[in-house]
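User: Teach me something about this protein's shape.
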Amino acid sequence: MTSPSPSPALARRLGLGDAVIIGLGSMMGAGIFSAFAPAAAAAGAGLLIGLVIAGVIAVCNALSSAQLAAQYPTSGGTYIYGRERLGEWPGFVAGWSFVIGKTASCAAMALTVAAYAAPAGWEKPVAVVAVIALATVNSFGITRTAGLTRVIVVVVLLVLAFVVVVGATKIASTGTGLAGTGLASTGLANLAGPDAGSWYGILQSGGLLFFAFAGYARIATMGEEVKNPARTIPRAIIIALSITLAVYAVVAVIVLAVLGPEQLASSAAPLVDVITGASGSGGAGVSGGADSAASAGAVIVRIGAAAAALGALLALIAGVGRTTLAMARNRDLPSWLAAVHPVRQVPIHAEVALAVVVVILVLTTDLRGAIGFSSFGVLLYYLVANAAAITQPRGTRRYPQAVQVVGGLGCLVLVATLPLASIAVGVGVLAVGVVYRLITLRFTPADGDVTRAAKR
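Assistant: First, the predicted structure itself:
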């Protein structure tokens, strides 16, 4: 068997369409089927304002990432940007936050696949199979990843269109449009009330919903594999995020209108509930042929949800593997993880190690706080990205510094308003990483920065 080479440059095989698809696959599966319910629990109908807040901050972060990726088109994303612009420690904090948070997200997505697709009692085995299968797909090369993600994104968009049409039909059938639905309590005058949630709850919902937008980072982390990266990466990030924002806004309005804030907050599968006839007041079921149609529709939505989670898991494995590769090149993680397969041009050791860790997490935890914990790590990641982008010289600047200021302050606010348990766990895991690096610096001789040697 051919041994992996130490750490050569990865092959540039991704075009604009491939990069956009990977971004869409990352975002669509991460939040559209999972983040609305906890956001509604935090903010009620005010989650729509939380969605706007999350979207604005995501746009600022995306523009900062695009500006940085154009200057530093290599694997690692904000880990590299932080090192280059701010120093080794900020870069390490960004990379560690991304790897740990997104590893937990991998497990959460695998469990989501199982929740929608596995028979009762078989959830964890199915989740393990999903992790192993998609890690294997990634190991055969990035073009396989983009090809499979393309199929998944098409399926998910078709299912979401189906949900929107059915939901809009239910709203129209009331004869009063949106009146009397969950949207009736979203007026600005009611945002601080008990039904719509406090401003603290709205901000918390924004932090939870930010989890759903974080996929565009995957495009930047694969900068070493994108053709013409200075042009392709910024365009791909903006296109993927714009499409996602539009889809999320439409689906959020429909789901909230049909179910109402209370039922949405308690729903395990809100998009399925839209199809099966639930209403904001508890809903009356349908009967006869309509009941069969609703059941068939629910099956379609479950298939779409499983496909979305698979797409997110596939892109997460690719993105985390490449950030791990970049950190290992700089000895911020064990150098064994920097190996790149000589034929398939993938960070093979990093992806194998990631798959093992995710399988362990799937088997040992239910990850109920995965969304909050992941948001904690990703918001810190983008805080570093905005800080790095502020320092870029005029010649490499594409957007005003005000964009990075808004993005950075927004990240701080959303982190501070996340659930306390998520903050506590996030701070603890961050501390573990800092201690690890301190020990490494103390006992490992410095070999120089190998990142620049990898850029060619």
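Now, about its shape. Residues 1-5, 184-195, 278-286, 448-456 have pLDDT under 50 and may be disordered. Residues 288-329 form the longest helix (42 residues). If you'd like, I can walk through any region in more detail.
User: That's plenty for now, thanks!
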